[in-house]
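Thread: "does anyone have the structure for this chain?"

Original post by V.I.:
We have the sequence but no experimental structure in hand. Need at least a predicted one for the grant figures.
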Amino acid sequence: MGFGLGMAPKQTPLPPPKPVTGVSVEEAVLARRSIREYVDKPLTMDQLSLLLWSAQGLTELRYGLRAAPSAGATYPIELYVVIGEGSVEGLRKGVYRYVPQNHSLVLHKPEDVREELAEAALKQPWVREAPVTLAFCVVFARTTVRYGRRGFRYVFMDVGHAAQNVYLMATALGLGTVGVGAFNDEEVTAVLGLKGEEVPAYLMPVGVPSSNAPKSSTFEELEKYFRSRRG
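Reply from O.Q.:
Generated one for you, tokens below.
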């Protein structure tokens, strides 16, 4: 994004990350499901903060390392978040860009674009109905300049690492999400207002799961099942 001389984008600071869930890694892995139905309830700023931090937030300050691994620490991901009207407590509608370096948001487009984003995502209703959608966009050159053609593969690995973090964080927070890879690249680029070399790679609608959301088995049920399959 370019800004005129002497101008800087207005930033919205996010609450600092801190342990709040009381959910173990094992419990989050067990409970994780792909959730496509949500109740009409906004997210809190604390929830949004932890989702974004889990995807691309800083976890080491000397070298600026992040929550999700990246090939050669090249960090090709630019993370945007689409927020509807009244969808996050204390935050206006719009498309925001996440800034890992100071854990803040920059308003990119002051519009609720969920309807247009859902159309670009082949009319998948969960993109329209979720209060928030994380949009993983990538700049391939950050990685390919070091690794050549193989860097294209590494970039998508990076997205997968970050997306799984979001899955687990959402689960621990009592939220639900689903990965969406089916969309029209050009249309999503236009809806998000992407510039330069940024390419959309993955969408993750997030919301409070409905009562119809799929549930996982218990650890006890898994133990019983595994025992029954052994000789």
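V.I.: this helps a lot. The chain has one domain: 35-228.
O.Q.: and The longest helix spans residues 150-172.
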